[in-house]
Amino acid sequence: MNVYDFDGTIYHGDSSFDFFRFCLKKYPKTRKNLPRCLFFGALYGLRIVKKIKFKQKFFHLVTYIDDIDRAVVEFWNQNEKKIHKWYLAQKKSSDVIISASPEFLLEPICTRLGIGTLMASRTDKHTGLFDGKNCHGEEKVVRFRALFPNDEVDEFYSDLYCDTPMARLAKRAYIVKGEKLIPWKESKLKK
């Protein structure tokens, strides 16, 4: 089984920020969320609030969208082209995507790509509130082991070393830099 991070790994960029920008253009009412987002972004940058609090304020923009499912489909109609070619050439239905982005945002593209399993941050698509922890770092391992307690990871791909906990589970791990796949530094995998 191969496991992939999503943003910056198989997707060129950050789908959450791209969705935010898409919504600001397509749904002008979402601009009401900008002051809240900037305020909590500054607090997060100053380490006054935790990442999950900032992300909930960031995704509060969904409260200004009447048909969120339609908005997400329209977003992927425009942004599916940002899936890296290297991934499209090797993808399998048994692939697992594990991401800190919201499930509601990634589900449609994973379905389009024929990806069998998605694990992401459980976020209410109508409120922007999280149900549980942000699917990041060690939490990715917790979620993976809950669903696949005894399975081996053949290959793991991510663009960030904060995913080292998941990389440690894999027989082979790769850091992704655009279309380049670089073997994970052994020193990063040691505990």
Molecular structure report:
The chain is α/β, with parallel strands linked by helices and 191 residues long. It has a single domain, classed as HAD superfamily/HAD-like (Rossmann fold, 3-Layer(aba) Sandwich), CATH 3.40.50. 41% of the residues lie in helices and 17% in strands. The chain has nine helices and six strands; from the N terminus they run E-H-H-H-H-H-E-H-E-H-E-H-E-E-H. It has a six-stranded mixed sheet with strand order 3-2-1-4-5-6. Strand 4, helix 8 and strand 5 form a beta-alpha-beta unit. The radius of gyration is 17 Å and the shape is globular. 30% of the residues are buried. The model has no long low-confidence stretch (mean pLDDT 94).
Compute the number of structural domains. 1
Strand order of the largest sheet: 3-2-1-4-5-6
The percent of residues in helical segments reads 40-55%
| Element order: H for helix, E for strand | EHHHHHEHEHEHEEH
Report on the biggest sheet.
6 strands, mixed
Gross morphology: globular
- In round numbers, the mean pLDDT is 94
- End-to-end CA span: 23 Å
